[in-house]
Amino acid sequence: MIKYKFKSKEQDDFWSTLRTRVNAYFKDNQIEKDANRKMIVKTIALFALYLSPFFVLIFGGITNTTILMSLWVVMGLGKAFIGTAVMHDSIHGAYSKSKVYNSIMTFSAALVGVDKLIWKIQHNVIHHTYTNIEDTDEDILPRYFFRFSEHQPKKWFHRFQHLYAPIFYCVPLLEWITTKDFVKAFEYRKMGIIQPGVEFRKEFMGIVARKVMYYVIFLALPIYLIDIPAWSTVVMIIVSHAVTGIMLALIFQTAHVVPNANFIKAEGDSIETCWASHQLFTTSNYGMKNKILTWFVGGLNFQIEHHLFPDVCHVHYPNIAKIVQDTTAEFNLPYYSFPSFRSAVAGHFGMLRDLGR
């Protein structure tokens, strides 16, 4: 992986001005940057959305397949929103200023079925640093079946990618809870991100332990305790994970793989802009006025604010968005946004269609 060099922060008046203004907002209003009471209430509600159906499935004695499938679908939605609104903040270190409490909240990753360190490397380190840079940002890797930018090779079947994308978007979480964490652990060791030896062995055994826990609780117990054929339960579990997968894909893809976002094919190892300005060119918001959407997706519809201030809890993004908008306008920088989630999804699939032609 190439470690690209951005212009230094000291060379970017926009970034220094914006940081000063946002810090002043928190100081002047005597507000902490981490979770507040609303965030704590949200955390409890989302864990209830995820785990309450599970307990009903296990102990409710229900055998009606329609009811069972509905409960698994609700679990899938709950899992997606825990991922966006709890796990995401905690792994960014934005949930609590207490390292101990924040570390406890990262355990939510194990309940979702993914490894927190692998997520942190791929998302926090690589994606947030090298957003939409070809061959580096893993979130836009084509993986043969897709063409996410004009820089990527075109295959004949890409003309259909906007049609088959929803099916493929159901798969990533299933891959993540089975093979991806292990594959990435070896890959990141080879890249030197995870150090060989003690660190790698410790991380690998941690992945194994957390996977076993997840499989026992969310696979073996339902198969054993729900009084229907095992294959039926397995099918429902797969559907639940598919629901989570497509929800997460749509929430994240609509922030970067959209027509107004830039994709960078760098020559050499230098990027022409400061890191902060780069985030503006490669990121888009959506549905900023939709409070219900903001609540469920963990403020990720304010993706620009999140990329600029990932250490700030998402409950504060709507309040600092006006500061970011005013500052970008002052420095003649872009601030991309779709009016709604629906329009962002339409923009994403329209872009897939156009890139496949």
Unreliably modeled segments: none
The spatial strand order of the largest sheet comes to 1-2
Overall average pLDDT = 94
Total count of domains: 1
N-end to C-end Cα span: 30 Å
Main beta-sheet annotation:
2 strands, parallel
List how many beta strands DSSP finds.
4
**Could you estimate the helical fraction of the residues in percent?**
55-70%
Query: Count the helices. How many?
Result: 15
Shape: globular
Q: Indicate the proportion of strand residues.
A: under 5%
> How would you spell out the order of helices and strands?
EHHHHHHHHHHEHEHHHEH
- Assign the structural class, choosing from mainly alpha, mainly beta, alpha/beta, alpha+beta, or little secondary structure: mainly alpha
Measured on Cα atoms, how large is the radius of gyration?
Answer: 21 Å
Protein name: Acyl-CoA desaturase
Transmembrane segments: 43-62, 68-88, 204-225, 231-252
Keywords: Membrane, Transmembrane, Transmembrane helix
Organism: Reichenbachiella agarivorans
Provide a descriptive summary of the structure in words:
This protein has 357 residues and is mainly α. 63% of the residues lie in helices and 4% in strands. It has 15 helices and four strands. Helix 1 (13-28) runs antiparallel to helix 14 (317-330), helix 2 packs across helix 9 (198-225) and helix 10 (230-256) packs across helix 15 (341-356). It is globular and about 65 Å long. The mean pLDDT is 94. InterPro entries: FA_desaturase_dom (IPR005804), Fatty_acid_desaturase (IPR012171). The chain crosses the membrane at residues 43-62, 68-88, 204-225, 231-252.
